[in-house]
Amino acid sequence: MRSRLAIRVHSLLERYFPERRVFLRSDKDTRFIRLRPHVQIAAAVGSVTLVAWVIVATAILLMDSIGSGNFREQAKRDQRMYEARLNHLASERDARADEALAAQERFNSSLEQISQMQSQLLASEVRRHELETGIDVIQTTLRRAMKERDYARAAEEELRLALSENPGNGTLGSAEGMSESAFDMLAMVLSETAAERDKVMADARDAIEQAEEMEFEIRLMQDQNKQIFRQLEEAMAVSVEPLDKMFRSAGLDTDNIIDQVRSGYSGQGGPLTPLTFSTKGEEPSPDAMRANRILNQMDQLNLYRIAAEKAPFAVPIKDAYRFTSEFGYRRDPKTGGRRLHEGVDFAGPVGTPLHATADGVVTHAGWSSGYGRLVKIKHEFGIETRYAHLSKINVKSGQRVSRGDRIGDMGASGRVTGPHLHYEVRIGGKAVNPMTYIKAANDVF
């Protein structure tokens, strides 16, 4: 049974793959190789397999090449987009800085005007008190003069009655002489009293007119003060709100930060002490309370600015650079594997100056395996910044630095593919996206 099946299979193979002979001829001899059907089938299968493998391998290489080209083009487009965005943010930052300086100048000018208005207001109040005192004195003098006039009139009436009751008295001559002298004295007293009364009334009218003029001037001054107060309140709102938004955009608790800054700067005195417009122990006026509210806003603005200096709201490079890698998971340029990139990369020439992004204390300045030459700076509010792959370090561990201080130069030390700065921001030891702080600052400064 098996032999018959084998014979049938062999005959079938012979039909499609007949036995062939390959002759090999030399000078002395001629030989041949017999190619049986199963050998031909094996050779055909091997050839087809080889051709298929070549086609698949070629397709894979072409697809990988096309994909790599698209990835590079996409990376270049992303880089151009980020560079354009950073340039736009830099221009906006410069514009906001100019606006902040202009607002500060307007604020200083308004504050100087307030000081002048306060001085004028105090002088006006003093003059008003003097006029009120003068009016009281004039009114007292006028009442006394009127009483003297009434007394003189009563005396005149009594004298007239006495003369009318004794018309035939023997002493008429002497009475007439006395009456003439009395009339002269009374006339003189009455004329003096009338003149004094007229003078007192004229002084009273002048005092009342001056008081009305002073009240009008005070009302004008109060209107000017209200306008200045309103401008100052608007300037404070414009100045404080962007700073508050900047901290909140970075995910920071503004109330906690302001409390920490206030506890570190708790001394009192100087130009931000509460204003008082009265020395009589009275309750402060509405203008005084409004001025004190503005001063409190100025104090809050000052606390925000102090906090902004202590948080890394700045770019560590002031010269030209390229933004080459963002925060997050990416393909490792060395191994090709996927891993978390805990900072951002700024590429530039070796030796490009690097600057501290906030006030703080250097906690590390030296070599650190894959980081290369590394500088760590500890800031307030539990924030730490790292500057890696430096070619030169200009600070020492334990040194206190301020924002903008040059801490080193860009390089290619450690695990890198080229010269660049690897910049990190950490809060409580956990890496966060540094661009959050940089973009938040670009919206304000």
- Residue ranges: pLDDT <50 for 5 or more in a row? 170-175, 272-279
Cα distance spanning the termini: 97 Å
Give the overall silhouette: rod-shaped
Estimated share of beta-strand residues: 15-25%
Which radius of gyration do the C-alpha atoms yield?
A: 51 Å
SSE topology string = HEEHHHHEEEEEEEEEEEEH
Total domain modules: 3
How many β-strands, per DSSP?
Answer: 14
Report the biggest beta sheet as strand number plus sense, adding barrel if it closes: 10 strands, antiparallel
Q: In percent, how helical is the residue content?
A: 55-70%
For the residues shown, what is the average pLDDT?
A: 76
Structural class: alpha+beta
Q: Count of DSSP helices?
A: 6
Quickly list its features.
single chain; 445 residues; alpha+beta; ten-stranded antiparallel β-sheet; 14 strands
Give the SSE map.
Elements: H1 2-16, E1 20-25, E2 30-35, H2 37-165, H3 172-249, H4 254-264, H5 286-310, E3 322-325, E4 328-331, E5 338-341, E6 344-347, E7 353-355, E8 360-367, E9 373-378, E10 383-393, E11 400-401, E12 406-410, E13 420-427, E14 430-432, H6 434-442
Antiparallel strand pairs: 1-2, 3-6, 4-5, 6-13, 7-12, 8-9, 8-11, 9-10, 10-12, 10-13, 13-14
